[in-house]
Amino acid sequence: MSKLLILNGPNLNLLGQREPALYGTDTLADVEALCRRAAERLGCSVECLQSNHEGVLLDAIHEAGRAFKAGALLGVVLNAGAYTHTSVALHDAIKGAAVPVVEVHISNVHAREPFRHHSYLSPAAAGIVVGFGVDGYVLAIEGLVRRARRAAPAP
Ligand code: CA2
Description:
Structural class: alpha/beta
Number of helices: 5
Bound molecules: ligand CA2
Radius of gyration: 15 Å
Order of helices and strands: EHHEHEHEEH
Distance between the termini: 16 Å
Strand order of the largest sheet: 2-1-3-4-5
Helix content: 25-40%
């Protein structure tokens, strides 16, 4: 079965606990369950990981690159949180791993503070979904599956 990695970065473990006006009321567990259901509807499975540590996210992207190369992974849905706006290392990891990554943001970062307008990840991403709340994860999953099926149509 085709697999996707759902990778969440710093502070996303706090989802649903504060700032509902920005991020909604769903917890991270709710978001992961939403992703699991969306993937299953498309005949896929998900692996979910959240970390507050940049190096853990880098290692996960490297591992995803190896799995993609081996045909065991379709791609990565990545909400890198604030590392989006700071991390050249994540940019390099996405480029180096050569795995399709869809960058997701729950909020519309472009309608927020100027320091959130720049993303180091966008130039390396296969696609970007911004401002659709947690539904953005579902849109990203659908985008990755459609992309994979376009590249390798079923016989
Ligand atoms: O909109 C997004 O998804 C963000 O990636 C969320 C990040 C923020 O730094 C990015 O600019 C945009 C923040 C992660 C969640 O932080 C929380 C803090 C308190 C309560 C709930 C979530």
